[in-house]
Design brief:
With 215 residues, the chain is an alpha/beta fold. The chain has a single domain (2-213), classed as TIM Barrel (Alpha-Beta Barrel). Helix content is 44%, strand content 14%. The chain has helices at residues 3-8, 22-34, 49-59, 72-81, 93-102, 113-121, 137-145, 164-168, 184-189, 192-207, and strands spanning 13-17, 39-43, 63-67, 86-87, 106-107, 126-129, 152-155, 176-178. It starts with a helix and ends in an 8-residue tail after the last helix. The protein binds 3-phosphoglyceric acid. 3-phosphoglyceric acid binds at residues 16, 43, 67-68, 130, 156-159, 177-180.
């Protein structure tokens, strides 16, 4: 089993956190942990991203990764801050190679057969299927898994409790990413109880996926 699978597969869910400050990220991670999800992908979409990764890493109770990584220097910033896995919206040779150099697992985005083949050529066998719903959803992903028996997918983008099971029931899906458990209003108002409630609901739904469906 490759490195990223051993990290993410047991959790089955990857909450995607876009934080405006390190303090906010720390609190959000606490709300996720309280809901049963000790993992957070911190996106590099705000100036606070690296500090947010460091703040979550310092908690000691959360597997912290960095997302929206599109350049090699961001890999360095994320890893230096404590990120233990890297997620990219697309498949970039520069990002993947820097991750290999830094010894950190990487999940590049791939949504077509050509992109999956590019990832394979770069030595990656687990990819982010992104944007999942806009790219044809679970049906499209299921079709894409057929020719790539050795590839594992983490679909992300437009996933919610309404369609979570459609993805988790695909044997090649290790985990599902998403931000639905961190709605913007709850984050803005500091309603961490709501984040915890939605997280616990997602964890319960994810657990209902039969283990026999995993590979
Ligand atoms: C991502 O960064 O992968 C997406 O923004 C997550 O998609 P979602 O917000 O639709 O869950």
């Amino acid at each position: 089993m490759n490195q990223i699978l051993s990290l993410l597969r047991p959790l089955r869910l990857v909450p995607i956190v876009t934080a405006e400050s390190a303090t906010e990220a720390h609190a959000l991670a606490g709300a996720l942990v309280a809901g049963g999800l000790p993992v957070a992908e911190i996106t590099f979409r705000t100036p606070a991203a690296a500090d947010a990764v460091a703040a979550v890493a310092s908690r000691g109770d959360t597997l912290v990764g960095a997302g929206t990584i599109v350049r090699a220097d961001q890999v360095d910033a994320a890893v230096d801050a404590g990120a233990r896995f890297i997620v990219s919206p697309g498949t970039s040779r520069a990002v993947v190679e820097r991750c290999h150099e830094r010894g950190v697992p990487v999940l590049p985005g791939a949504v077509t057969a050509t992109e999956v083949q590019t990832a394979l050529e770069l030595g990656v066998t687990t990819v982010k299927f992104f944007p999942a719903e806009a790219s044809g959803g679970a049906a499209a992903l299921r079709a894409l898994t057929a020719p790539f028996g050795e590839v594992t997918f983490v679909p992300t983008g437009g996933i919610s409790p309404a369609n979570l099971r459609d993805y988790l029931d695909i044997p090649a899906v290790a985990a599902v990413g998403g931000s639905w458990m961190l709605p913007a209003t709850a984050v803005r108002t500091g309603d961490w109880n709501e984040v915890t409630r939605l997280t616990a609901e997602a964890v319960t739904l994810a657990r209902r996926t039969p283990a026999s469906a995993l590979r």
